[in-house]
Amino acid sequence: MIPALLVQFAQMMLVLALAPLLTGVVRKVKARLQRRRGASVLQPYRDLRRLLGKDVVLAENASWLFRVAPYAIFAATWVAAALVPTFATGLIFSWTGDLIVITALLGGARFALALAGMDVGTSFGGLGASREVMIASLAEPAMLMLVFCVAIVAGSTQLSSIAAHMLTQPVGLRVSLALALVALCIVAVAENGRVPVDNPATHLELTMVHEAMVLEYSGRHLAMIELAAALKLLLFASLIGCLFFPFGLAHAGTDPAGYLLAIGLWLVKLLVLAALLGTLELSIAKMRVFRVPNFLGAAFMFGLLGVLLLFVSRGM
Amino acid sequence: MTLVWTALAALGVLAVLGVPLARRATGRWVVYGGSLLACLVLLWAGLAALDAPPETLVLPVGLPWTGAHLRLDALSGAFLVLIGVGGAGASLFAIGYGRHEHAPARVLPFYPAFLAGMALVVLADDAFTFLFAWELMSLASWALVMADHAPDATARAGFVYLVMATFSGLALLLAFGLLAGAQGGYVFAQMRAAHPAPWIAGLAFALALVGTGAKAGLVPLQVWLPLAHPAAPSHVSALMSGVMTKVAVYGFLRIVFDLLGAPLWWQAVLVLLLGGITAVYGVLQAVMQRDLKRLLACSTIENIGIVFVAIGLAMAFRANGIAAGAALALTAALFHCLNHTLFKSLLFQVSGAVLVATGTRDLERLGGLIHRLPVTAVAALVGCAAIAALPPLNGFASEWLIFQAVLLRPDLPQWGLKLMLPVDGALLALAAALAAACFVRAYGIVFLGRPRSEAAAAAHEVDRISRAAMLVFAALCALAGLFPGLVVDALAPVVQPFAGGRMPVQGGEDWLTLVPVDAARGTYNGLLVGVFILASAALTAAVVHRLGSRALRRAPAWDCGFPDPRPDTQYSGDSFAQPLRRVFGTLAFHAQERVDMPRPGDMRAAVIEKSARDPVWDLLYAPVGTLVARVSDAMNVLQFLTIRRYLGFVFAMLIVLLLALTVMQ
Amino acid sequence: MTDPVVLVLLIPLLAAALLVAVPRYRLGAALNAAACLGTFAASIGLLVQRPATGAYLLVDDLNVVFVVLNGFVAATTSLFSASYVGHELAIGRLTARHLRFYHAMFQLMLFGMNLALVANNIGLMWVAVELATLTTVLMVGLYRTPEALEAAWKYFILGSVGIALALFGTILVYLAARPVVGEGLDAMVWTTLLAHAQDFDAPLLDIAFVFLLLGYGTKVGLVPLHAWLPDAHAEGPTPISAVLSGLLLNVALYALLRFKMLLAVNPLALAPGPLMIALGLLSVIFAGLMLYRRRDIKRLFAYSSIEHMGIIVFAFGLAGPIGNFAGLLQMTMHSLTKSAIFFSVGHVAQVKGTQRIGEIGGLTETHPLLGWGLVAGVAAIVGLPPFGVFAAEFLVVTSAFALHPVLAVGLVVGLLLAFGALLLRLTQVAFGPVRGGTAAGLGPLRMAHLPMFAHLALVLIAGIWLPPPLVAWFQHVAELLR
Amino acid sequence: MHGLSFDIAHMLAGSLVLVSFLMLYQVRLTALLHALALHALVLAASVAWQAHIQDAPHLYVTAALALGFKAALIPWALRRIVFRLGIHREIETVGGIGLTMLAGMALVALSLQVMLPVTAMEDPVAREDVALALSVVLIGLLMMVTRRNAVSQVVGFLSLENGIILAATGARGMPLVVEISVAFSVLIAFIVVGIFLFRIRERFDTVDVGALDAFRGGRA
């Protein structure tokens, strides 16, 4: 009981601690590929600290919702991240929520963020919010579709059981799983507001989505939101890891050494994915807002196709 | 049973009392207070009936030589609970809200009658009583829709509504005619006993689907719903959307699962198809609405679609003898009915509060109400989050169960189902996401931002009772989301006889975790998720405030450096919906935009014109209307013939009949 | 003179003779009402004391239904008519001379109808129906406007031809009966005919029925013989419209039923059922479509009467215990409801000063009693609960669907059509912005709502609870009708 | 019941049908009225004959009525009307005399065909009497439908009604015949008076369809 609790706690702390690092790594990779030295991978931590130290400058007609939202967003994302088996399956609280719940939690975070964007009543806040929900209205179904895909293959929506199933049973190379992987990658890009869907670095009004919503935020509130974004990125990375490359995940109740090994492997996965993401972001340009639906629609279709294949292939 | 009976009688008396009392201010208190009590009684009786043997009662009224048969079994009990909850909430809200009605005489007499009609539908145990109550419900609600009868929109709404209601009644009449057979076995018991031939059963099923679907708002029979629900006073809209549609669902369940016996797989395919389409269609319309109550009505269509998808799943599993799946899906359907009753009642009450505070339902004239109506804003936020299916609220719990049901058995034998299930899963996912978008828009435009009109700027919080009603329902939404296991257990006896099984007992699970089939397949614990979110949020806030700065300055909005004081620079409802319009509306509704941008130097304002058509209306209803108009125009000549021509008719008739005689002999 | 039948016939006759002489309209109206009430009382008396069946008069369960209904509606109508003509006199559309004539004719018409109902001799029945027709013709033309005269003329000509055909049919029935029953009076006494009908010559009976169906069907207002009905309803004084819809159509229907029974006994004769079903269905659908273009409120409800007659004939055509029961119930309910509607419409036309639907609006605002009365009446007539018509239509449709599904679907379509049209006009008249006069109306108008609400109350009660004795009685009659 | 009496009755009935055709053939109103008088005359004769052979004296009343009222009074009254209202004299028919004649033939054939299977009569002759009466009725109706003038339509109605009286009297021992014939006479009187009062000139209706729309369209 106690060690299990410890593991769960360790996981929560680890994701929290590593999230900024991952962001930093991605930025570093991009800088390197651009022949820049770039900021240190620890820069995000510094940013966060500075933000936390600053006062909050609040717009006059901002309501309480505007001030509560950052914590809510952060909390939802964090809980979601805590439910993903990053380095160990069978976490003690994993049964509180399955993959669908995680999706929904992220949806909740987005809900709060979009509302916060509209609260001050500026044109940019509304713009960001409306684009965000438009993207989400396709990204979420796509996510759910690939969740269905995986869940049907594994016969469960429970992440631990899925990972366990992938490890133990000979799943083999399934078309639908490949489709699901592609879909997940697209969704991940969209959800984290990376190129080509959105550009986290831009402040060019017409192209920004996520940044537009958080335009009015400052100080600790902004820090919370930044941290939540970083957590989200980490979450998706670990999700890809544990769904499609589950090797090296520690089972419940292995010895500490096993856990350490698992953590190491997890870090390796994260690094690889970060590198891939960086290269991807550099290799393509951001697309117009109204081309995004086609992009995500493709993901949705991939997911649906995968599920259909599974339904048809089962039991005949 | 006697309890229910007294409650119904009380409602009847109230309906009569409503006429004289309408003039006095106390009338509101008497009628709504009385209805409140009656609804609580119904609620209590329904709860008691959930796990009690069926009670029956035969009254010497109604159809002679059959009498009125009433029966209170678990299913009726479950829906009686819905009626009780929704009715009680609406009545409570109305005690406060009713103060603002300009013509109480047009509402007070019909309101209790409406409630009584719905309760009677659920209790009826023979075809005559059922239809009697069914039509009574329609008639009373029609009168309530016509309460504010001045605008033409209301006239149209009332017309379309009552015609569709009668259409549904007639369809059910035919269905019962089939089931009753030639010697008129109108009592449900006889119908259960009689095992009709397959084609009769199929036809009866189709008629039942049409009849109940038309009342529930199933596409393509939903056209009346976005017209009628907004037209009524808000507490009545709450009843119509939150409760009456569920009564229609009850009718469907009663006929298909109870009277017809085991459903067939092709019927399941049909229901799944319609349900999925309805869900997406409804939410797409909701996203584009500009009238707050209309938006809510459209989202009712969506939720009805979700419920029917769940029912379809239950039918599919039942047809293949998969008891666990059927139980899961049916429970989910009933659970979602309850949830929808809760949050839709809440949201319509909110719309009523907004209407009272600002005098408008037009999104483009609202905004910033979170400052003026703090309590309403909180309740509304809970409602929006719940209907957007966000954990840990109740909407998510039921939709999660439905998703679990979809994922349960990919190996159904029939191809129709093989293809239908995943597609429905996708449609549900799409609907859920769009619903979230829709209610972000609704809440953001109405309550957040800056007021878009003086009325909105000068709004005042509504009275205490209305606020209490809204808060109670918000609390109920939260509770149902945090402890879904209890609801599931309560529904088990309802599901048992029709699904041939039940979901695993949830009471035993630690922390009241929700277990659809078994723990390995997936579990969800609303309570813990809620606690975790709260805890981590509070923790973080505390830590941040301790470690980081807690200072806070107010300043003008930044807005990328060029803030504009005028509120109309902020995003409007239409501009918010524009991306979704473009993405989905172009396909579904031929939505089009025409921008008229004046040349530089030209001083006139730029204009953007939007247009959207409703394919269902264009393809289904408009043709029928024009056909009737054409034919009646053509036949109208017959009103103006000369007597000689009329004599000609008589003569021709005579000759024809005589010829017929000679031919026959 | 204690024999109620004699009273039922004599009271109207004497009243007619008396009323011709009465100059003042108040007195006349009072006398009229009194006479009608007396007749009603006498008809009630028929329930307890039945006279022996004679060669000329017959009172059995079947026609008692009609006679009592007749008496009741006539009584309430006379009350309504009192206030109605008062207003007409006040605005000068009618003069005292007119009213003298009017009241006398009213009683004469009642006499005719009652005679037709209690006649045991088919010849006598024919004469009585002709009498009733002629009197109503005169009353329809009462207003002397071109429209009224034309309506009366149309009614008169079509009615006369109908009468002629009916008479020919009657003669044929006599010819068919003579060889079996023997020459003379017996061959025209209905009871005797019924007793021997099974060995009548079938082909002759068939031809006879064709003529009778067309003849009396014209009076019933079956499509395509209906042409006179809408105009007669629209242009005559409203009490007459009420009586036409509520009573005269029933009388003609009753005659038809009598002959249907004759045919039903004879095994070789053609089954009248299908013919009646076809005509009924035709009437329902035709009326349903015609309703959409109506602009005159009284003509609107006249067409709805055609529709309902169609339903009733349809039900009797179905026959069988349920079908006949439904027919009787529908007929009773229709008489009560439709006359109530005409009471309301009459006052509406008076307070608004027009019959054009387009010029009437927001009635529930300006005249709540009238308006809601009209709403209730229309709700009842289109067959919505809690009113009695619902029960009848429930029985008709369900029993029809069990026998011939296609026909039932046709009937349902017709019902829906008519429903839509009536609802459309109702919303226009009773709700929406106020159009037309808002005058509170005359003094007697308040009291004048009594008949309307009395009818509606009866229909309401019948919709919720039919007294068992009534049910048993109707069932027995349904048996009689086969 | 010797054959001769029946032959005479039959002959009279047949001649009634002939006169009906004669009326169908007329193109001028005055001539038509003469034909009508003839029609009534023949009717009166046959009724009288029936009264004789059935030795039913009350039928003589009917015969007298036919003679005095229909054969004399009505034609005269109609004549007056024609002159008074200045109704122009030829008869507008729908689709030609010839066609209506053919239709009349067809109707006679039809009525015989209809009556053929009837076996109720003691002898075929009586049956054919009824058949003839039926054809007279149908021809009368045909006339009402195909003639445009009000007067000629009234004439059609009269002949129709003569046919009915024929059938009624032909039906041996039928009661109330006299009453019925009287009632009918009243009816006819009404019609004639009505025509006169309402100044109904050309058409049976007060006005033609177009005008109807004009002044009743609003109230339709």
Write a concise keyword list for the protein shown above.
heterotetramer; C: 482 residues; mainly alpha; 19 helices; 79% helix; globular; D: 220 residues; 0% strand; disordered C terminus
Describe the model.
The complex is a heterotetramer of chains A (316), B (665), C (482) and D (220). Chain A is mostly helical and 316 residues long. Chain A has 11 helices and 1 strand. Chain A is globular and about 55 Å long. In chain A, helix 1 (2-33) packs parallel to helix 10, helix 7 (175-191) packs antiparallel against helix 11 and helix 9 (219-244) crosses helix 10. Among the domains of chain B are: 265-538, no CATH class; 615-664, no CATH class. In chain B, the strands form 2 sheets. Chain B has a two-stranded antiparallel ribbon with strand order 1-2. A two-stranded antiparallel sheet of chain B has the order 4-5. The longest helix of chain B has 36 residues, at 323-358. Chain B is globular. With 220 residues, chain D is mainly alpha-helical. Chain D has one domain (3-219). Chains in contact: A-B, B-C, B-D, C-D.
How many helices of chain C does DSSP assign? 19
Helix-and-strand structural type of chain C: mainly alpha
Shape of chain C: globular
Termini separation of chain D comes to: 60 Å
How do the SSEs of chain C run, as a string of H and E? HHHHHHHHHHHHHHHHHHH
Mean pLDDT of chain D: 81
Low-confidence stretches of chain C: none
Secondary structure: number of strands of chain C? 0
Describe what is shown at a glance.
The complex is a heterotetramer of chains A (316), B (665), C (482) and D (220). Chain B is built from 24 helices and 5 strands.
